[in-house]
Structures are given as structure tokens and as C-alpha cells.
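I have been asked to look over a protein record a colleague put together. The record follows directly below this note.
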Amino acid sequence: MEIVASQFQALVLSRDQDVLVMFYAPWCGFSKRMQPRIDALAHNLSHVKSLAILKIDDTRNDVDHPVMAQLTGYPFLAVFPAHKKEQARQVKVNGKLLGDPDAWLHEAVSMLKQHVTYPIPDAPNTSNEGSDVGSSLLSDEDERQEEF
């Protein structure tokens, strides 16, 4: 879900949820490549009601939070833990894994589990054949994104 600065307080800081925010720049190629991965992460963790995964265009939205002092480039991922929003921190997922959707997703979930307040359970239907179809669709999307 994409948000704007006027929603940041309500959707990130005021909620009793862990929140992962991707701050991006629309002109940044690495941001463009990571967006489908963040969307897939949000989809794959949609069963986790204690977690929100959001995106914000940092070039059009000024966010005033101490974690922004850690921003040195785009995309910038930050976890805002439930009950400890002032302790938000930058998190990194190996950018070399962007070409491997499954590996990137696995590393992102592992990283999140280390930084959130509430546990992240495994998906209820991990053996669902339909999830393979969704993965191939994301790969097609990635190919289209890289052509631009």
C-alpha cells in the first residue's frame, strides 16, 4: 500500500502494529526493481495482521522521524516496531537477491522476524499450488519493469 506524508502518523506511528516502510525515489532504478518484491512480501505476509508493509515516495513526501537520519540512498527500508516506534531502524535485504524472487522473499521475512515486536507465523497454506502461479506472474512483471 502506498501512502503519503499526511497519512504517516496514522498508518505508521499510531498503529499498534509492526510496520515496514519502503522509502523510494521514482527515478531510482533500484527502487523500481525492489517495488515488486515489496508488493510480493506484502502479499505473502497478508495473513499477519500485526504487520503492515507500506511504500512512500520520499521525493514528494517529507517524513519527520529520527530514522530518516539513516537514509543515505534509495530504496530505504525501515522497520517501525509496535510499541517502540521511536526505535525504528533501517533494515537491509541483500540487493543481489532481487533477481531471485524466492530467495529475496525468504531473506526479507528472516530480516523482519529479527526486528518486529509480534511473531510472524508461517503462511497457513504453504503447500498451495496456486502460489507458484503468483510467483511466475511477479517474475513476468519484473521483466516488464526492467525493460523500461
User: Anything to note?
Assistant: The first strand starts at residue 2 and ends at 3. DSSP finds four helices and five strands in the chain.
